[in-house]
Write a structure and sequence with these properties.
about 190 residues; mainly alpha; globular
Length: about 190
């Protein structure tokens, strides 16, 4: 099976985020909801920062001034999602404000995903060769291994300050992940 393109890799991540949301909503107990809240936060934080560090610079490079406008809108959408995720990741799933905040987060995320699917991905893929797209997908996947696993909406969200902030926050997040509850590996998508 050939390596995924950038759009395919990002699309797989979007499906993984939806899966986490569905599992969180269906979880039968508070401990299970905490596990799936943590998994959603872990996946979404890594996804957002990896897009910002790999895909967004490519959009700007490939599409020039128009790419910068696209990326500015994407960063604003990401910022709203990061702010909601920051609140959600520390909130108990049995808190009265948890479910409304989760629904707002998912609605904002889906609006952003639709924008990416209809605008950003087709334009980016049209400007890339298939091999360039696959190389960007590999970079996106590798970057997810290095970035923070929690939302930090106060951190810079533009290169090169974002790179530095991400690499400083990541070890702290990963250390804290060792004591957080997560679903079993076989349960994850």
């Amino acid at each position: 099976m050939p390596a995924p393109t950038l759009s395919e890799a990002i699309g797989e991540d979007h499906a993984r985020l939806d899966y986490c949301y569905e599992q969180l909503k269906a979880a039968p107990s508070l401990p299970r909801r905490i596990e799936w809240r943590n998994q959603l936060a872990w996946n979404l934080a890594r996804h957002a920062i990896s897009e910002e560090l790999t895909w967004y610079p490519a959009i700007e490079r490939l599409l020039g001034a128009e790419g910068t406008e696209i990326v500015n809108l994407d960063r604003a959408q990401h910022q709203a999602v990061k702010e909601d995720l920051y609140r959600l990741q520390s909130l108990s799933p049995d808190a009265p404000e948890f479910d409304p905040l989760l629904e707002k987060l998912i609605a904002d995320l889906h609006a952003h995903i639709e924008h990416e699917k209809s605008e950003d991905m087709p334009r980016t893929e049209a400007a890339l060769s298939r091999e360039e797209s696959r190389a960007l997908a590999r970079s996106f996947e590798r970057t997810k291994m290095l970035v923070p696993t929690r939302s930090h909406p106060g951190a810079p969200n533009k290169p090169y300050l974002e790179n530095l902030a991400a690499f400083l926050a990541a070890p702290v997040d990963k250390l804290a992940d060792l004591v957080r509850a997560f679903p079993e590996e076989h349960e994850k998508l």
